[in-house]
Here is the input.
Amino acid sequence: MDISGLFSVKGRVALVTGGSAGIGRMIATGLGAAGARVYICARNAEKVASAAASIPGDVIGLAGDVSTLEGIGKLVGEITAREAALHILVNNAGTLSDAPLDSFSEDQWDDVLELNLKTPFFLLQKLLPLLRAGGTAERPSAVINIGSVGALKIGPREVYSYQASKGAIHWLTKSLAKRLASENVTVNAIAPGFFESEMTVITDDAMRRMVESAVPRGRTGTPEDVAGAAIYLASRAGAYVTGSVIAVEGGLSI
Ligand SMILES: NC(=O)c1ccc[n+]([C@@H]2O[C@H](COP(=O)([O-])OP(=O)(O)OC[C@H]3O[C@@H](n4cnc5c(N)ncnc54)[C@H](OP(=O)(O)O)[C@@H]3O)[C@@H](O)[C@H]2O)c1
Here is the structure.
């Protein structure tokens, strides 16, 4: 067996939503370093441009809001104008809302379900022609949905719509994987544990000790941890993996 290209994503074309910060930026950085052409999108145009300029490799920033069908249509139009095929779609942009049960509002459901659940579905739907064009039996196109450890184990925060949206995206991953397997498109989810980001901030040493002591591996996640899982799923090594939820959480859900 020649394993020299087994984990390669060189020359592949990727889109990472929410690629200007946090986990999306970690994955975009890994894919870029591994030789993929990476499109990143997020709402704040300045941050997208500065992330695209500072991440090494072939990284292109596209500003836009993927929480609406209109925003999705605009992004898909921009990618379609530039590329004949897409090999890797990372549905990463997400949001979280927490409030006590008694005051949890309808808006806190709608915003979270729109972005965390409906957006990955419609972005995949609209990008299907490009994903189909990019996949072969040997090298399928790879859709990677970012789920959460919050859907594997209930944590301390009151994030009802978030947990439900992430449980649903894990399950949606499976139904789409079954539907698209014969069309050379794999669909998997990564369920991250605690990665420091704009969404997940460690405010002081006491909180750091508390977080780290809850994780069997004794630390928070690093860019290499989550980028490694994405590169695996997007490479030839991951071609036979579909419908899986890969927990990258240092054992937090055990
Ligand atoms: N961090 C963790 O520990 C953790 C754990 C489990 C799961 N996750 C999941 O990982 C994903 C990323 O989380 P994160 O912690 O990295 O979040 P983050 O630091 O808040 O980054 C979110 C990214 O998404 C972009 N974004 C937000 N809303 C958007 C929209 N409507 N359209 C386009 N882009 C949008 C943001 O840029 P703009 O604000 O400029 O749009 C930013 O680039 C989420 O799905 C989250 O649920 C995170």
Observations:
- The mean pLDDT is 98.
